[in-house]
Write a structure and sequence with these properties.
487 residues; 9-stranded mixed beta sheet; alpha+beta
Length: 487
């Protein structure tokens, strides 16, 4: 408890452009090694980079979404360092004049006591990716694949203002959702489209100076991010409490061992010898261009949440859940539109409950749900008009998922109800007959209830529902049973 943790994240979001940032080479993932590398990507003598306009516009969209400053002029620099898979010996990046300055991102942190957190961003700058060294194909040699070289990246850098692994993960998830929502990044972490570097340091509580940081590189899952940060925190505290000293370094996380290991001592900015790239003119962003980009942006999650709360009377929590992704929001909106008398809260409950649980169990997203929004709307409508109880509705949902009666099209829900004989019994006379039958069969429990032992009420309800094969309207069962017991 005497230690304080300070965390900053640097996130690389691969921009979803068709071609690379300075060449016409494809950015499609999974091609054969070195089949998507033009002369510029290979750094052949005499070739000159040409900036991809779409990459700049996607960076501008991100800046607008986080309330950042988009300077009128930004400059590309050469960042000098050696990687075997960096053909030029330098990376074209941005340093003093990036395309996005400042901004912030707010999110909820799900801790023992959940709270709202706002993280200030330092900058977001454009740069090219390096290639990839493959150490697995050969026993004593490594192969270099330059397909990734020149792929456009937006590096998003936070201030060091996060104080736990949970905060860092919550920020990363929110950032991931935002770039995917904007359509500027596909967010595929397994393919390296979204990866995080975590700068972690510790200091004694009460100290004002930051501790020496270590940077954990290339974390491509939220679980790895949390595990790596927690390990690094404990390791740094152990070293310091043993009288050791933290050396600034870049470390890699090994998921198999759950540990980090030093890759190299960490460079500072001056070690990279930044200077403006003489082959690229400064990027001038006019107000007209900025507004044109703004006009193409989708409604942002925060604005959509406010609209859902005002139009549909959803709680802040429900509105946030319905806007976790564009697919969530589209499914919710389509379901609402397909209903004659939409009950937004009921739709949200079904999406967060039965539908979400089944999708998660099958590793599916809302965008490819076997149960369509129109079908869910029809199912919920049958709950509203008391054709189905909640229990019977779940049975119909299972049949929808299994595509039972799929040939019935829009009438699939009603076809399943008819085929399975699931229509809820709401005839009070029929329910009353079942209630009396169950009471006569359980006279002792009825007597106990009337003597003050009210626990038997639930048992009697269960027997009535069983006798009706789950079809009796539960609310009517409760009312009629209660009246008969009191009578």
């Amino acid at each position: 408890m005497s230690w304080e943790v300070i965390i900053g994240l640097e996130t690389h979001a691969q921009l979803s452009t068709v071609s690379k940032i300075f060449s016409g080479s494809s950015t499609t993932y999974g091609a054969q090694p070195n089949t998507q590398a033009a002369a510029i990507d290979l750094a052949l003598p005499g070739v000159l980079p040409v900036l991809n306009r779409a990459a700049v516009e996607k960076a501008m969209m991100f800046g607008l979404a986080i309330g950042a400053t988009i300077p009128n002029v930004s400059v590309f620099d050469r960042k000098n360092y050696f990687y075997p898979d960096l053909p030029k010996g330098y990376q074209i990046s941005q340093f003093e004049l990036p395309v996005v300055v400042g901004g912030s991102l707010s999110f909820n942190v799900d801790d023992k006591t959940p709270y709202r957190k706002t993280v200030q961003l330092t900058r977001a700058h454009l740069e090219e990716d390096a290639g990839k060294s493959n150490h697995e194909l050969f026993e004593r040699e490594s192969g270099i694949d330059l397909n990734r070289a020149g792929t456009p990246l937006l590096e998003i850098v936070t201030d060091p203002v996060m104080y736990s692994a949970k905060e860092a993960v919550a920020y990363a998830k929110t950032l991931h959702a935002l770039v995917v929502w904007l359509g500027i990044c596909d967010g595929n972490m397994a393919e390296g489209s979204f990866r995080c570097d975590a700068n972690v340091s510790v200091r004694r509580v009460g100290e004002s100076e930051l501790g020496t940081r270590r940077e954990i590189k290339n974390l491509n899952s939220f679980k790895f991010l949390e595990d790596a940060i927690n390990y690094e925190i404990n390791e740094q505290i152990r070293i310091l409490e043993d009288g050791g000293k933290i050396t600034q370094a870049t470390v890699l996380f090994d998921p198999a061992s759950g540990q980090t290991r030093v890759m190299r001592t960490k460079e500072d900015a001056h070690d990279y010898r930044y200077f403006p790239d003489p082959d690229l003119a400064p990027v001038v962003i006019s107000g007209e261009w900025l507004e044109r980009v703004r006009s193409t942006m989708p409604e942002l999650p925060a604005a959509l949440q406010q609209r859902l709360m005002s139009q549909h009377d959803l709680s802040a929590y429900d509105a946030e859940q319905m806007t976790q992704s564009k697919a969530h929001a589209a499914y919710f909106d389509t379901t609402i539109q397909a209903m004659g008398k939409p009950d937004a809260k009921l739709v949200a409950n079904w999406m967060m409950g039965e539908l979400a649980a089944t999708l998660n169990a099958h590793a599916l997203e809302f965008s490819n749900s076997p149960v369509t929004a129109a079908q869910l709307a029809q199912l919920i409508t049958r709950v509203q008009d008391q054709t189905l109880s909640n229990k019977l509705a779940k049975e119909v949902f299972g049949a929808l998922w299994a595509r039972e009666q799929a040939d019935k099209g829009a009438a699939q829900v009603d076809a399943i109800i008819e085929a399975r004989g699931l229509k809820q019994v709401s005839d009070s006379g029929a329910i009353e007959a079942i209630v009396l039958e169950v009471m006569n069969a359980n006279a002792a429990i009825v007597d106990d209830y009337r003597a003050g032992k009210e626990k038997g009420f639930g048992f009697l309800v269960g027997q009535i529902m069983k006798a009706s094969k789950g079809k009796a309207n539960p609310a009517q069962v409760n009312d009629i049973l209660l009246a008969k017991l009191k009578g």
